[in-house]
Design a protein that fits this description.
There is one protein chain. The protein is α/β, with parallel strands linked by helices and 241 residues long. 31% of the residues lie in helices and 29% in strands. It contains 7 helices and 13 strands. A 5-stranded mixed beta sheet has the order 5-1-6-13-7, with helices on both faces. The protein is globular and about 65 Å long.
């Protein structure tokens, strides 16, 4: 019983529990690798939150999103970020943290395909090729023609080359990468808002160490504190201004 207690509450004066949390490596400006360094809005938020948690030594590791999802599903990984809340699509995620960030999800299109009204998603977009990222769950996209690419930057280039008509993604991420690749924004137009999503820290239902609930509780507390004191807003503003 004493040993179990030590594991459940690793902040009781014993060595910190070493944990690896995995994140998407190609989701700028939220999480991305640049010059060998993992950075981004979520990365900086999580680094601050983890550093303030008692009893845990947390490493954040970037991987391709599809590989992250598979590792969580198989129970090889404990936690990952930043999934949207999809309990039916991903039943192997048994717990989501408190919402970390609100993200607007919409369409950026080439202007010429918006010459006729397209007010309804996905019905008004069935004649177009829509790009999205591998592993990203876009509501309603299974009802239309779509192409998947490994990263936001690949989709931004395909949009500018006319290989897709619209790109369905996070609004801030799309603008960030279109600017990065030198896109002529005068040829593009933001279309409709598909949804408002929230990013979370998700936990595998097939990886259940004894400290799991304590880790989740502490993480949630730190995120709520950072939201309340304005730290999260400050991190976001650093990246988009």
């Amino acid at each position: 019983m004493i040993c179990a207690g030590m594991n459940i509450f690793p902040n009781s004066g014993h060595a910190a529990e070493k944990i690896t949390v995995y994140g998407d490596k190609t989701y700028p400006p939220y999480s991305y690798v640049q010059n060998g360094t993992y950075n981004g809005i979520y990365v900086q938020i999580l680094q601050k939150a983890f550093a303030r948690m008692d009893g845990y030594d947390v490493q954040i590791k970037p991987l391709p999103w599809k590989r992250v999802l598979l590792g969580i599903e198989k129970g090889h990984y404990f936690a990952f970020f930043p999934p949207y809340y999809r309990p039916k699509l991903r039943p192997w995620i048994d717990t989501y943290s408190v919402p970390i960030l609100e993200e607007g999800y919409g369409l950026f299109c080439r202007k010429e395909v918006l010459t006729k009204p397209r007010q309804n998603w996905p019905e008004d977009y069935k004649d177009l090729q829509i790009g999205t990222n591998l592993g990203f769950a876009v509501p309603g996209i299974d009802k239309i023609k779509f192409q998947k690419a490994a990263s936001t930057i690949q989709n931004a280039k395909k949009l500018m080359q006319g290989r897709i008509d619209c790109y369905a993604s996070n609004n801030i991420s799309s603008l960030y990468m279109l600017n990065k690749v030198g896109a002529d924004l005068s040829k593009l137009k933001k279309s409709i808002q598909i949804s408002t999503e929230h990013g979370y820290l998700g936990f595998s239902g097939n990886n259940n160490p004894p400290y799991k609930q304590d880790f989740i509780r502490q993480f949630n507390d730190k995120i709520l504190e950072m939201q309340k004191n304005g730290e999260i807003d400050a991190i976001v503003n650093e990246f988009i201004h």
